[in-house]
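Field reference: sequence -> structure
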Amino acid sequence: MKLDVKTMDNKPAGNITLADEVFGAALRSDIVARVVKWQLAKRRAGTHKVKSRSEVAMTTAKMFKQKGTGRARHGSAAVVQFRGGGVVHGPVVRDHGHALPKKVRQLGLRSALSSKAAEGKLLVVDNLASTGKSAGKTAKLRNQLTKLGADNALIVGGAELDTAFVNAARNIPLVDVLPQQGINVYDILRRDVLLLSKDAAAHLEERLK
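Structure field:
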């Protein structure tokens, strides 16, 4: 697969050949769904908690005598049917994460990258470095992204991101910036356009071939 490479000013900067096994793979929506579910499960805090019968602050004395009242027999007031009692089978502190094989995760990432390429929403730029007097300015970067058609975009740079570029993108809505090692399926799908630097594209090819 051959794509045109542009500068951040939307000027031609040659072209690049991308591996079809990474950027031209078949779309596996089932695998993508599994990877997204795995990612979101790992993010959950799992700190939800309710008190059980043994944890509520309640007297352990028998509520009233066993016989002669005409009422149903009851012991502890901490049981679930009484106000202030414990909760049965309620949520507890736990880890929601689950295992997912590495090959499945890689297949999901290849599928997400390929879907962006198939939709024509994959852009490659020569580099993301900010230069000139207006380097690091949000207004300049917003105009550049508008010209590139990347108002709603995930931008992936090399192993080290340019600090001025990151600062400029920080205040732009619907724009996320990640280093190449942080690219993931969920962030690719939640943005309309995927904008890669040449370094990031080369890294993904090496990582996913």
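Note: The chain has a mean pLDDT of 93.
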